[in-house]
Amino acid sequence: MKPYYVVGHKNPDCDAIVSAIAYAALKRKLGIDAEARAQGTANPETLFLLKKYHFEQPPVIHTAKCSLAEIEKDTPVLARPDMTMKEALDLVITQKNRGMLVTDEEGHLEGVVSVSDLTRFWITSEENMVELMTHATLDNIIKVLDAKVFFRSDAFSPSGVVHAVPSLSDNPERFRGSIVILRNSPDIQRFVIENRAALIIICGEDWIDNVTLEKAKEKGVSVIRTPYSVLDCTKYIYQAPPIEVVTTRNVMSFNEKDMVDDVTKRLAKSRFRSYPVLDDEGRVKAAISRYHLFNYEKKRFILVDHNEESQSVNDLEFGEVAEIVDHHRMGGIETVNPINITERVIGSTATIITGMYRSHGIEPDHDMAGLLLGGVVNDTLCLKSPTTTDEDREAATYLSGIAGITPEALNEEMIGASMSILNKPYLELLYDDFKEFRIENTRVGIGQSPCKSKEEFFRIRDGFLAYMNEVIVSQHYDLLAFLFTDPAGTGSYMIYTGKKAWVMKEGFQNILDENGFAPGIMSRKKQILPVIIDTLNK
Ligand SMILES: [Mn+2]
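Above: the input entities. Below: the structure tokens describing the complete assembly.
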């Protein structure tokens, strides 16, 4: 079974990362296999928090689709090219007729051998049988016949013709270079040796007279003895050639990184039963059949700090949403089965998760409490954002007690670690946290970023405003506004432009000070948008 993946939204903030880690840990404490994932790298203040409390950054997940590496497959039945067809048949039969993958010494795929490849010769023409047998080595023949060697000639090069139980009246020409299966009758043996057979195979008695053997050595004819009957011997000897002779090459194969849905499409055009799955070096890792592609276990997700598909893992429809824990507006996600949703009007998802620890009677340890506290203070601007509730404050007090640090002190440390807006390209700064609204016929865009100090704001203001003026022209906004918000939660510096810029000026005239600072203003949704709507409708 795959674990549940607990994952926050795209472009992850601190709350998204913290909630994923903390909720996955809680699930595991409750005996449920869960792992945190992230949709991107954590920002600098989150990385600081993770390091401070000894957590790893969650691995990044790119898609809800599964690759072949992530689904169940068959263990491949592997064979080397020099294996005899008999060994291959025996193996295939014990493996319930799955195909065999032929590889070189390093495991690189050379081709596929199916049961039909191994048995086709039974119904083929005599010519083909002869051709096939020219590939049989003496070692392979000895192996398939369990044979004992009386004499082996170094110059074994069979014509491919096999004779069984010849008679003295046969045409002597027939025996040159052939393999002859016979019983222990010295006169026949000598007759065949005299006519330069390549090999004689003695069935039955384990014995050859010295005179005959000397003659064989003299003429360069190999002599072996098998315990099998003539009938079995004739059957098995045709299974002596190595499987490389019947290997199908250039077969369709897949890389373990290929996505299941792509593979399914490609398989629809092909008719084999089983296909090799390779790594990047072309080495065989597994075998896959249609069964695996239509019956695989999908990835299951627990979404935290978001509930909208557009903010969630790519290709979410290929996975399953099992649960949602969030504090945003509902954005419509469809599920196959009923699921648990915890959707609260509250300052941070970390607060909700803290409540879940407590309701299960599990106290977060020192590090986990510090982590959760970081999530709460970061998402609520140190409990000063208008979205902050009593429950957030209470959770912060509780976590603060365990972690041994005040919310303010932790927030300060995180702000210290955060990236200065002066180091960000304007484009990133504008769009990293950007929301667009359409009010009547007015197109409004509002961006927001934490800003550590008044000095930073003054240094960036003019240049950034000029950039926003360019964006207004190219993107046709009627109003473009930006909030530089104090992460300690005192308020925001505001700049705005566009032909409807008067809306901001008029709407906030009683709030903005001479520096463009709006004390206590931190929320677009709760504090900016309502004013814009009111002012426009006046
Ligand atoms: Mn949040």
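Note for the figure: Residues 421-537 form a domain with the Diaminopimelate Epimerase; Chain A, domain 1 fold (CATH 3.10.310.20).
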